Amino acid sequence: MPEFEIQHITRYVYDAPARDSANQIILFPIKDEYQDVLKQEITVTGNPIIDRHIDYYGNEVGSFTYALPHTELVIKSKILVSTKHRPFPINDIFPAQQWEDLKPLQYMVPYIDFLRQEYFEGADELKQLVEDLKGTADTPYQVALRFCEYVYKNFNYIKGVTSVETTLTEIWKLKAGVCQDFAHILTEMLRLIRIPARYVSGYICTDKNGMRGEGATHAWAEAYIPDYGWLGIDPTNNIIANENHIRLAVGRNFMDCSPVKGVYKGSSGHRLEVSVVMDDDKVIVKEDVVTEVPYAVIKPAVDHVAKNSYQRHLEMIQMQQQQQQ
Question: InterPro entries, from UniProt (predicted)?
């Protein structure tokens, strides 16, 4: 079983002291029969208490608040992960039966969110494309691999042309982006033909030169294959995700899996730096502007405490009652 040691450092540097920084981190690798966490250490500036919970999609999520004024916030995660090779699906069931087996999933809670399509300009064009690519005699597994190859060959891998806020409409028009864009397009293609598909965030760890996304945060898709389960597919590299892909989280899209996000009070000026170190001695990536599955930008909050919808509704009722008195 291969083992991978990864140190992931996220650093926010502020132009002026920030305070009341409330953050959420999803930096805890998934634990299952194909991936195990042998060791993990997480440290945060100011040593705040990190509360943990499991979210709706089964991801382990941490949250913390650093209230004191600070000009820098550093989050360090060091993990030692072991993985196992997962066998590939076997096409020993008639294709028609496999497609029939997928139909009931649209009414089952674990899969509904992963079948929900996002409307965007070009959706009709993409729908026609996937129908043309789908062979009548092909299994869902074969179709998923064909869609993966299509994205790999027809979208240009270019850093810096997109961000976490880039929409599907923009990605479709650009026909370019980085791994999170490739994953978003592939999940949409799969959902259009009723194959449940989810977004995956993590790392890709290989010794091969030229592997896109190697040594940085990475993203790919998973397709649900009847009588098999979730199959990882990496359209950025046109490969099946297996023992060299370290999974951190799954969700509908990037926002469900963002490794770090939060809010703070203070000046809007800040800089984000990320570094990923493997095997303790080789810095693979260090960037001031992250384009490889960017972290959600921490947006400045106004001086008052943000209120949720219930609080706002309650205050509105109270104001109306006061006006009526």
Answer: Bac_transglu_N, Papain-like_cys_pep_sf, Transglutaminase-like
Q: Looking at the structure, tell me whether residues 110 and 251 fall in a common domain.
A: yes
127 with 225, same domain?
A: yes
Residue whose structure tokens are 């205050």? 315
- Which residues are within 8 A (CB) of 278 and not within 5 positions of it... i.e. 6 or more apart? 4, 5, 6, 7, 205, 215, 284
Cα gap 213→126, rounded to integer Å? 26
What digits encode the pLDDT tens for the residues 75-115? 999 999 999 999 999 877 789 999 999 999 999 999 999 99
Residue with tokens 């896109």: 212
The alpha carbon torsion through 158, 295, 179, 126 (nearest 10 deg) reads: -100
Are 261 and 233 in the same domain?
Answer: no
The conformation of residue 86, written as its DSSP 8-state character, comes to P
- Domain of residue 239, CATH code: 3.10.620.30
- Of 163, 300, 147, 306, the closest CA to residue 234 belongs to 147
Nearby residues of 96 by Cβ (< 8 Å), 6 or more positions away:
none
Helix and strand numbers, DSSP H then E, in the chain: 8, 16
Name the residue type at position 203: Y
CATH number for the domain harbouring residue 284: 2.60.40.2250
φ, ψ at 62 (rounded to 5°)? -110, 150
Mean pLDDT of 282-307: 37
Count of domains forming the chain = 2
- Is 312's pLDDT higher than 70? no
Query: For residues 260-289, b (16+ Cβ closer than 10 Å) or e, as one string?
Result: bbbebbbeeebebbbbbbbeeeeeebeeee
